[in-house]
Structures are given as structure tokens and as C-alpha cells.
Amino acid sequence: MIGAKKATLFLTHRTPHLLIVRLRHYFKNMLCADLHPPAAVRGMIRLDREAFSKKVKTPHLLGWNVPPEELQYIPDHWLQYPEPEASLHYLLGLLYIAFAIFALIGNGLVIWIFLSAKSLRTPSNVFVVNLAICDFFMMAKTPIFIYNSFTKGFTLGHMGCQIFAFVGSLTGIGAGATNALIAYDRYNTITRPFEGRLTQTKALIFIFLIWAYTIPWGVLPLLEIWGRFVPEGFLTACSFDYLSSTFDTRLFVGSIFTFSYVLPMSLIIYYYSQIVSHVVNHEKQLREQAKKMNVESLRSNQNKNDASVEIRIAKAAITVCFLFVASWTPYAVLALIGAFGDKSLLTPGVTMFPACACKFVACLDPYVYAISHPRYRIELQKRLPWLAITETVPAENASTCTEQEAQTTTQS
Predict the structure, then answer these.
(1) pLDDT of the residue at 48
(2) Can you tell me the distance from the alpha carbon of 261 to that of 254, in angstroms, rounded to the nearest whole number?
(3) Which residues contact 19 (CB under 8 A, 6 or more apart)?
(4) According to the model, what pLDDT value does residue 147 have?
(5) Which residues share a beta bridge with 61?
């Protein structure tokens, strides 16, 4: 009896997966042929020797090197897949190192310049700083993923997983809510420059509301009150559980999908569509009025410059929000498939693509503003002249804040 138990343990933990499959197939044939036990034992030994003499090597399954006390935190779905090649782990680790360098430098510059430059300390730019903070801390947690990748597994365990997922939840949802508020602010600035003017106090209240809305989505699964954080993919990253087939899990996934993805995305699409509609109608009215007055344009040179500045800022905001929608849509679809669809579609490799897309956008956001925001480029040029940025300083009588630029554009 003891020998049989040891043999079972041997076959479970030490025997290659392919060999176990072959043994099962052999015993099945043995029962069909009604072989006697001695012949069966000799056949098993012969098969075992042949397999090891040929040095049968198959990849380990995911989680093979995870301590038993940590296995309870890993969804069974991932444990059925073979461990990826070490080179794939290293490739993802190097990719995340590049992401982290670009994102931390870019977002760090945005935070520094927007907070230190007086000309950029406007109510509207409070949202830009908040978005940069979200992107900065989203990438500040990547050392956990990088370390797990270079050690090829769930090395930092449950605690590292909880930190990674909690920070990712707060920064991802916070970025979505901030993008929605940026769209709302641009809408008010361009379409209602007088009534919709934002004050510093109002902007800070909006920031407080963003975090009051975001924090519960991170705290509830962290404390396992509603939902939980678990490893995903190659077990080097973590997110909220979307694989458990329980009512609570499906309700959580449906709720976070609705309030953290659909709602911000709907607001973004609505406000920017209204901006485009307003600009098109406004330009049409100007052309018609100019035609009646038999002049080429009703805009002065200064107003044209102000309009150009405003359009560049609006383009930057639209680009950032589009990147948010494009990056988080794959992850939203992935979560819905895990909770309500065919889980077999979610292989470890497939789930790594949406995660990389989210990190990639955190790298792009600050550089979009660097390219498209003229006053940011001017301040960057003043403080870091070795970057060789060339940006024309606006005229002295030009507006000094985004809201005033929009007023000039609308009045023209």
C-alpha cells in the first residue's frame, strides 16, 4: 500500500506529462486485453525504461514551481496550459523595461512641467496632471512583472500579485474617469466658453470625485468583499478574477465593465462628437457670413493663431482619449469572455496582448501632449534646451490659458 502511494506520487510530480498519458493509454489497452498483473507490471516497467532511455522531455505545466500554499490563489484555468518558453518570459520582461523607462520619463516630465510652470497651472490642466499621475503609477508597478518574468513564474507570490493588481485597478479606472472629464472640459471650453468656464476649486472637486469613484473598485477585490485579484496569463501579472463561474464574479465583471469602461467611453464619444459638430457648424456660419460680406475670411491673424492653438490642444485630447478606448477595449472583451463566454479562447498567450496594450498607451500619453500642446512644448524648451524643441512663443496679447483661447476662437 505504501509502495503504491509512493508510485502515485512519483507519477504525479516527477513523471513527464507525455509519459503519464502513455501509461494511461497502456493500462486502458491492458484492461481490454485482460492481461495478467505480472505482464502488466513488466509492460509498465519496459515502457518506463524506454521513455527515460529516449529522454522524453515535455514542457512543465504552468504553476509547476509554485509552492503549494500559493496554488490556491491561481485559477485552475491557467494550470492546464504548458509553461511558455523562457525566451518568451525574457522578451516580455525586456518589453516592460522599455515601457517603464519611456512612461516614467514622459509622465514624470508632464507632472513636473505642468506643476512648475505658472502658465500651465490652469484648471483644465489639473486633469492632464491627474492623467499623468495615473499613467506614472501604472508603470511604477512594472518591476513586479519584470521580476516575475525573469524568474519565470509566480515568484513574488500572493502579496506581489495583490499590490500589482490593486495599483493597476486604481490607475486604469482613474485614467478612464480622467479621460472622460477631459472630454467634458474640452466640450465646455469650446462650445460654452463663458457659462462652462472651469475654476480651480471646481477642478479640484472633480479630481476628488474621480478618486472617490475609483478607489472602491480597487479596495473591494483587495479585501475580497466583492471580487478578488488573481494571477493571469503566464502567472507573471495579476488582475481581477474574471474566470470563476460564480454569480458574484459575473456580477462584479458586469458591473466593472459597465461603470469603468462603457460609461467613460460613452461620455468620451458623446462630448467629442459634440465638439466636432460645434466646430463644423461654427466654421460653416463664418464662411456664409464672409460670403455675404464679400470678404475672404472674418478671422484676423491673431484669431487664426488662437484657433490653431486651440485645435492642437483639442487634437491632443482626442488622441489621448482614442488611445484609451483602443487600449482598454481588448481587455474589456477578454473579461467578458472569461465571465460569460468560452473560456477555452483565453490562452495564456492571448491574455498578454491586452495587458501590453494598456501599458503601451501609458507610454504614449505624455508624448502626445509633448507633440501637440504648444505651451507645454514652450516650457519644456525653456527648462530643457538640449532637447532642441522649436516652438513659437505666442504674442503678448494672446490668451494665457486654455479657456481664454477658446473664448477668442468662439467669439471670432
Answers:
(1) 45
(2) 10
(3) 48, 51, 56
(4) 95
(5) 82
Pairwise CA distance, residues 313 & 371, whole Å: 10
Cα–Cα distance between 135 and 308 in angstroms, integer? Answer: 28
User: Is 352 in contact with 89 (CB distance < 8 Å)?
Assistant: no
Helix/strand/coil (H/E/C) assignment for every residue in the chain = CHHHHHHHHHHHHCCCHHHHHHHHHHHHHHHHHCCCHHHHHHHHHHHHHHHHHCCCCCCCECCCCCCHHHHCCCCHHHHHCECCCHHHHHHHHHHHHHHHHHHHHHHHHHHHHHHHCHHHCCHHHHHHHHHHHHHHHHHHCHHHHHHHHHCCCCCCHHHHHHHHHHHHHHHHHHHHHHHHHHHHHHHHHHHCCCCCCCCHHHHHHHHHHHHHHHHHHHHHHHCCCCCCEEEECCCCEEEECCCCCCHHHHHHHHHHHHHHHHHHHHHHHHHHHHHHHHHHHHHHHHHHHHHHCCCCCCCCHHHHHHHHHHHHHHHHHHHHHHHHHHHHHHHHHHHHHHHHCCHHHCCHHHHHHHHHHHHHHHHHHHHHHHHHCHHHHHHHHHHCHHHCCCCCCCCCCCCCCHHHHHHHHHHC
Burial of 160 from C-beta contacts in 10 A (0-12 / 13-18 / 19+) = buried
The string of pLDDT tens digits covering residues 2-37 is: 444 434 434 444 444 444 444 444 444 444 444 444
- 229 beta partners: 240
pTM beyond 0.70, yes or no: yes
CA 103, 108, 91: angle at the middle one, nearest 5? Answer: 20
Distances in Å between the Cα of 234 and the Cα atoms of 83, 84, 220, 237 are 8, 7, 25, 7
Residues in the chain: 412
Position 98 scores a pLDDT of: 93
